[in-house]
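Problem: given the chain below (138 residues), write out its structure.
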Amino acid sequence: MNRLIRIVSLAVLLFAAAGCEKEEFARYASYGRIVCTPTAPKVGDTVTFKVEVLDAGNRIYHADYIWKINGEYYDEVRITVRDNAKTIKEIPTIKWVPTQEGTFNISMSAYFKYSMMDENGQMRSANSAKGSVKVRAK
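Solution.
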C-alpha cells in the first residue's frame, strides 16, 4: 500500500510539472495582401496603402517596413516598442500620389527583431506583402 501511494504521488507530481508551464517562443508576423484606398484612384488622388495582418506575431520588439512601388524604394518606417509591450500590433500605412496613369505593383517587406528566440533558435526574421493598383487618368 505504501508503495502504491508513492507511485501515485510521483505520477501526480510529474503531470503537474509537465502541465504547469508551456514554453514560449517568438513568432513572426504574417500578412495578406496590400489594400489601397480609394480602390480606383485617378492621377493626383492621394492613395493610402494598408497591409492585411493575418497574424501579428509575438515578441517582436523592432521592425523595419520597407515599401516599394514598381520595385523602386518608396518609403521606410522603423518601429520599436517599449520593453513592457509584447509585440508590434499595427503596420504603418503609407500615402502616395500617382503622377501618371498605369498599373503599379506595391510591395512591403518587414524585417523583425525578437525579444526572445523563435522555435528555430532565431532572433530575427522577415516577411512581406504584395498588391497592385490601377491608376486612371483624370
